Amino acid sequence: MYQYTSFDRQVVHQRAAQFRDQLERNLKGELADDDFRPLRLQNGWYIQRHAPMLRVAVPYGELSSVQLRQLAVIARELDRGFGHFTTRQNLQFNWIPLARSADAMDLLAEADMHGIQTSGNCIRNITSDALAGIAPDEIVDPRPYCEILRQWSTLHPEFAFLPRKFKIAVSGAAEDRAAIAWHDVGLQLLKNDAGEVGFKVYVGGGMGRTPVIGSVINAFVPWQEILVYLEAIVRVYNRFGRRDNLYKARIKILVKAEGQKFFDAVNAEFDKILSQDADGREHIIPVSELERVSRSFVDPAGVRPATNGFDPHRGGQTPPAFLRWLERNVHAHRVPGYRAVTLSLKRAGQAPGDVTAEQMDIAATMADRYSLGELRVTHEQNLLLPWVREADLLAVWHAAREAGFATPNIGLLTDIIACPGGDFCALANARSIPVAADISERFADLDAVYELGPIDLHISGCMNSCGHHHTGHIGVLGVDKDGKEWYQVSVGGSDGSHLSGPAIPGKVIGPAFAAEEVADVVEALIEAYRAHKAPGEHFVDTVRRIGIPPLRAAADAVRHATAQPATAEAETV
């Protein structure tokens, strides 16, 4: 993991002190709410439906046990005893009083953490593959580059007030596990024929009310020049992005409207920075800087490759539940004798991604005992232990079961991605948590879920798409109609992984459904899959082969509250 320098610590502590001053002046009436708003936003503070919400950055998903314990302290002392991990590899607190917000910032700074640029119209948290640095299919470890990007983008004076939020994702593996094509900028690390490292650059991706897949703007940017190229992209966006319309302000709208003209402007700006800007070439990354940062990302002390193969049956009878957990929650590792283990945050009684302070402490203890003090936050709202010895897997399983982390459902139907929705978010049109709970209860039989095979189910409470419903094999979107909660269902989406195929938004299967119908609809889609699937065929492949009509017919057959939807208004919900 990256180790903060004295300069890094100075930055976050000074930022916390600055925020305390801003907060105190706001509470005294000396700093107007409208003036305070952009300041608190760029420190991660929203005003949500019931209380302020703090979003804590977990850069590229790496988290130490010390940091997780500090998050547990904040949950216990300032919040209501829990937090929520998001698809952006962040942690959110939903109940910290604004008057205590500066105390939270100080506690974060003590553990080399912050909420800087987790909200606001700026470059947000840099995300990556949760298996970065340990995946067998990795081409280049993306973490050093992610850290350089984090340092470059943090408090960047030119990009503090962009037309809209801006998100960057980086992948260094053969399989895209970071959904890079769905980001404002997606970066794919690769090597050319000469063995030189560079980036394939995607631009203009995004979800929301207009889902767009990013386009390749440059097939190979040498790694040394990536900051300059990103500077060019964000400059052109900052100059020409819409500021008069919130819904048309994202870079995806500009790229879609301008096409090659946008690409030409970026490449011209890139050349101009290098040839004309004063000190423009200073953003070319020197080898010495990459080497300095990379020293934080060597294998942790104590990693010892093993030569003997792993046999789960060695030593006597193996519990069937352990074998199923090995299949679903344990992942291959590039170091012989090690595995990565997902701690499932998808279990009955808690919303997807939620974790209590006690569970944070337990996960931190598991990381110390079995993963050299390191964890990862996954894109799917789970936690991951990246350095587990194969010899410790049975012990890890027992510890995970005790903590409620061992549900063997990773990649299955009940490994649901869901935003907090209308229960917390002021922007949401509908609730996500009760819908996720209904579906989880409907499919509580793990044997049945296991037999269905991999299915991505994603739920968003509004068009902002924080639950990534567009990428779900089954996507559920909360919409508002006459002040009531309705849910639009789509099928066949992809995040870009090998299982799901190239990134593509799902297709809507018809008019929206009432909340009480959604679990019935999901079950109907599952039954349609069972009826139509070919031998060995996954759900998403069946969906794409048979098309929308039979799926819509199956869903319409279980309507009851919306049994008569055939109005022009209903068709557009």
Produce the secondary structure layout:
Elements: H1 6-27, H2 33-41, E1 45-47, E2 52-57, E3 62-64, H3 65-77, E4 82-85, E5 90-93, H4 101-110, E6 127-128, H5 143-153, E7 168-171, E8 185-191, E9 197-203, E10 215-222, H6 226-240, H7 251-258, H8 260-275, H9 287-294, H10 320-329, E11 330-331, E12 338-343, E13 354-356, H11 357-370, E14 374-377, E15 383-389, H12 393-403, E16 417-418, H13 433-442, H14 446-452, E17 457-460, E18 474-481, E19 484-491, E20 507-508, E21 513-514, H15 518-532, H16 539-546, H17 548-556, H18 568-571
Parallel strand pairs: 6-7, 7-8, 16-17, 17-18
Antiparallel strand pairs: 1-2, 2-5, 3-14, 4-5, 4-13, 8-9, 9-10, 11-12, 12-15, 14-15, 18-19, 19-20, 19-21
Helix pairs in contact: 1-2, 1-4, 3-4, 3-11, 6-8, 11-12, 13-15, 15-17
Keywords: 4Fe-4S, Heme, Iron, Iron-sulfur, Metal-binding, Oxidoreductase
Domain Nitrite/Sulfite reductase ferredoxin-like: 53-111, 352-402
Domain Nitrite/sulphite reductase 4Fe-4S: 119-271, 416-555
